[in-house]
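Subject: Carbohydrate ABC transporter substrate-binding protein structure
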Amino acid sequence: MSGFNRRKFLKKTSAAASAAAVAPMLWPLPARAQWNNQPEKGAKLRVLRWSQFVQGDIDAYMVNVKKFIDKTGIEVRVDREGWEDVRPKAAVAANTGAGPDIILSTNDDANLYPEKLLDVTDLCEYLGKKYGGWYPVCDAFLRPDGKHWIGVPLGSAGSMMVYRGSMLKAAGFDSFPKDTDGFLKMYKALKEKGTPGGMALGNATGDGLWCNWLVWAFGGKLVDTNNKVVIDSPETIKALEYGRELYANFIPGTLSWLDPNNNKAFLDGQISVTNNGISIYYAAKNSPDPKLKEMALDIQHASFPIGPVGVPTESQLFFNQMIMKYTKYPKAAKEFLRFMMEQEQYDPWQTAAGGYVAPALAAYAKGAVWTSDPKNTPYRDAVKNMRPAGYAGKLGYASAGSAADFIVVNMVAEAASGAKTPKEAAERAQKRAERYYKV
């Protein structure tokens, strides 16, 4: 294993990222939208957001923060934490009524404490009208009652298959498999060639979402449309049996992998295929290291294969932006999010991040970043095509709690590793989920 340090490396790509943050491409907007909001005098804001996985994200984000400060005179402090650390800090802030004014979090965390969040319906309606509307999945995450928005959608770090084209070809595959049968054959062939793949089976907030895909691909689901827990099902058992076969061909160690681990393993040349956002490709493409630049030419992206259900079952990492109800400056907080979501700020940020965050507003799918490099295009429609967490039920405290407790990921890990039989793992997941989905 090399001494490659992913986070230190990404910092070195700042210059390239800054170069990407050019003036936004202008396109006709579908409707005129009116926004009237006067921030409080003397307002100060504190923002807590997740740490960047691509340096261009935070560089461009902070440029936009400075623009906001210069324009409004409102002081803004931005703190960053890992995904796994934002969730508990956000929960503490919600329960104690003190902390950051604005929190950028993941998946359906907002549904853990909706009554603690500021109603941002006016802001979301303004943005939706101006920028082509929100993709339907945004309603599931942040408009739980079908009327009021409890947060502003930011987008999604699309979870796609990232692979080395040359290694797949050496294993006998001219293209990425379209179905789960071919996917398993590919993993077996790669292992036999000494170029295995691997996907996270630890409590990884983003990369562990492949476990949702696995269960859904075989027709399983955590709950039905009535929010009744149904994870202990024949369909889930079939998914777990398949997962056990798949895991047998993983590189050792994936049971403890968190979100950074597969990035490092891929960039170190230890694995040939994994699921990830665009950050692996971004890091290789922008690296000053000739070996990583050469690797970037070999990196390809593809959608997850389709399972026996016969339809795509994509699970992506959704990003929300929440304004805490306890804030002393609700109008300033809304103004900050409005400013950051306007095209003049959002498009350069999206571009600088290299397409790491797929848009939640339809108009932003027209951004040049999605076609300037064809390898970016598969990530463009992540929000448009994703299934919401907690499928097929309604999102709320139960779905958010189950996701935060990694019930599905743990179930897959237990069955795949042999720690439990598929039936035992499904039974345990059923009991754990029923604690959240109380009848």
